[in-house]
Amino acid sequence: MTPAEPARPWGGIALVVVAASAFAVQDALIKQLGARFDLAQIVFLRSALLVAILVGLRASALGRGWRLVARRRPVLALLRSLANAAEWLFVYLGLRHLALGEATALFYVGPLFVTALAAPVLGEAVGWRRWLAVVAGFVGVAIMVGPTIGTARFAAAVFILGAALMWAATTLLTGLIGPDEAPATLLAEGALVFLVLSALGLPWVWQTPAPLSLAMMLGLGLIGGFGQLADIAAYRSWAASLLAPFEYTALIFAMLLDRAVWGVVPTPGMLVGAVVIAASGLYTLHREARRGAGRRSLSAQSRF
């Protein structure tokens, strides 16, 4: 803990847990809406609301110090937004055939992808302990998805792993961009890219939503934005090495939503695999904290 850091971490922990619950609800809404609507329509309405909010903030006193579009490293910022868009597509496809808890657990291999890619992309030295954690994490994946080989659920699991890989790409690109662009600028540019991409397919997939469905689509932007704000507030005041493990509470919230909304109870294989993946991710976070990296936040980087 740094001297400037608050002595009591409970406020930061509470904010991270609140953010984790918000992202679990966001994923549940995506799963629920994805059974009836195309991703382009869901993302368009969500992004339209988010862009409107960000434009309003940019025009206010709160808009000082950031822009709606990145200027210093525009190519990297655009690639980051495209990777984030691919992540959303893969999550959407995966949630069609997987329980929310399964998808959340598989998504947590994202930090392991970051560790595996850190050496070739960032030139970091990755020790044998972290490589062992990566291997263990993918053993957990095999435990979870092995029995589903040849089924629609296996293909869905591959999509979620693809989403985790795209999250890793988003994280690494954020690191390459560095402090040259404010987080709000990256958030705004991502929202604009999402809005443009989804608008391209909108004429072919539009279905006029009922009031409840429309509220759910718009709510995606509000809930996701609320989760981001809670995460940012936490990580501004407390160390990532302290808070990041509590982001795994999203898995608990996802399982509770599975039970409450869809009546799904996790299987023993799913629970064992999820524990192995979570333990590998937590160990990776621990090793990075000891090295002083302290840069990985599952939700702060990913759930734009």
What tags apply to this protein structure?
304 residues; mainly alpha; 13 helices; disordered C terminus
Topology (elements, then pairings):
Blueprint: H1 10-34, H2 39-59, H3 74-95, H4 100-107, H5 110-122, H6 128-145, H7 152-177, H8 183-205, H9 211-237, H10 240-243, H11 249-262, H12 268-291, H13 298-302
Helix pairs in contact: 1-9, 1-11, 2-8, 2-9, 3-7, 3-8, 4-7, 4-11, 5-6, 5-7, 5-12, 6-12
Walkthrough of the structure:
α1 runs antiparallel to α9 and α3 runs antiparallel to α7 (152-177). The chain is mostly helical and 304 residues long. It has 13 helices and no strands. It has one domain. The protein has helices spanning 10-34, 39-59, 74-95, 100-107, 110-122, 128-145, 152-177, 183-205, 211-237, 240-243, 249-262, 268-291, 298-302.
Number of helices: 13
Task: Categorize the overall geometry.
Answer: globular
Q: What radius of gyration results from the CA coordinates?
A: 19 Å
Q: How would you name the oligomeric state of the polypeptide chains in this document?
A: single chain
Number of domains: 1
- Please describe the biggest sheet, giving its number of strands, its sense, and whether it closes into a barrel: none
Low-confidence residue ranges: 294-302
Total strands: the figure is: 0
Structural class: mainly alpha
| Mean pLDDT, all residues | 83
Distance between the termini: 28 Å
Helix-strand string: HHHHHHHHHHHHH
**Beta strand %:** under 5%
